[in-house]
Amino acid sequence: MSLASKYGDRELVKGLGIYKDMRLDAMPPEYRARFLSRPHEFFVDPFCVEGNLYFIGNREIGCYLIDSGDGLIVIDTGYEFTAGQLFNSIWMLGFDPRNIKHVFHTHNHNDHIAATNLIVKMSGARTYMSEVDGKAMVESMTAKPSMRYAAIGAPSIKFVPDVYTHDEESFTIGNTTITCYDTPGHSRGCQSFVFNVEGHDGKTYTAGIHGGLGILSLHKEFMEAEGYYSARDEFFAQLRKVVDLPVDIYLGSHTLQGNMMEKLEKRKADPNGPNPFIDPTEWKKMINTAWVQAMQLIDDEENGNTPEWQKKMYADILKQSGNSK
Ligand SMILES: [Zn+2]
């Protein structure tokens, strides 16, 4: 019996398939070095996903803007060094970043939160994060560095969330109601958000961003560094919990997830055709992909099949975060 199979079947959703070769682990070293040194190459012209929902991230990090009719809402803000791009994207769409009223965060990792302080300085926006991740972040401002913020560079910019969010709690802002779901495993307090989008065709769609499909945290080294030994149990349990949420529009918390760029190209090629971002199977397919990859990771580790370059990469990340032994 493989170690992974104690969590269930190899696949969570049978017959739907998975995305092969979609990266749900850490950035490969060359890619990361390039992103750091040449972030402009990762810039993506901002675009409308559907109705009042816009993409304002880059090729690596998924950040989103909602025009609620009562101020702008931002979900995840990305790295500090791409904050200029984020603001630029908002201007390019014809909005004013000074009108950002609310900022939601899927989790407390540096790559999703580091531009938030600049937004708060500019607009006084209210900030939201799960109580678990939010309190851990605030605590870490005085504690030792941690993998939680490690992905790239020092966590120089932090904030104290105005609102601590909880499982199945909803917030209505203008025309938009955002419901938070606890989806731990990637971080202890990781959340996913589901909300309504008023489509161009007059229909209402449901968009979902899953904050915690990244499997980096499930490696032994990271569970040990974080003292987060229940990461795997919680990861598989949350996938099972949210897989059947009725989501029409899947939003990648990393842009590779859900093939956001490919969908954009498809849309450009056929602007009047069906919107490729509207696909009710995508949420399930991405969750299934994460499930299968996590199972594989555990088995590879158990059987000593983790490639050397990957082990080195994990060691480097831990070293950068001050967590190496
Ligand atoms: Zn993360």
Secondary structure blueprint with pairings:
Elements (H helix, E strand, L loop, with lengths): L28 H9 L9 E4 L2 E3 L8 E4 L4 E4 L7 H10 L7 E5 L5 H4 L2 H8 L2 E5 H10 L22 E3 L4 E4 L2 E7 L8 E8 L5 E7 L9 H7 L4 H12 L6 E4 L7 H10 L12 H21 L5 H13 L5
Parallel strand pairs: 4-5, 5-6, 6-7, 11-12
Antiparallel strand pairs: 1-2, 2-3, 3-4, 8-9, 9-10, 10-11
The structure holds zinc ion.
Zinc ion binds next to loops.
Describe it:
This protein is of the alpha/beta class. It has one domain: Ribonuclease Z/Hydroxyacylglutathione hydrolase-like (Metallo-beta-lactamase, Chain A). Helix content is about 30%, strand content about 20%. It is built from 10 helices and 12 strands. It has a 7-stranded mixed sheet. The chain has a 5-stranded mixed sheet with strand order 8-9-10-11-12, with no helix packed on it. The two termini are about 30 Å apart. The structure holds zinc ion. The site of zinc ion has 4 residues, from loops.
Features:
325 residues, alpha/beta, Metallo-beta-lactamase, Chain A, 7-stranded mixed β-sheet, 5-stranded mixed β-sheet, 10 helices, 18% strand, globular, binds zinc ion
Summary, kept brief:
By secondary structure, this protein is an alpha/beta fold. The chain contains ten helices and twelve strands.
Query: Structural class of the helices, strands and pairings?
Result: alpha/beta
Tell me the count of domains: 1
Low-confidence stretches: 147-154
Q: Could you give the distance between the termini?
A: 32 Å
Count of individual beta strands:
12
Average pLDDT, rounded to a whole number, is: 91
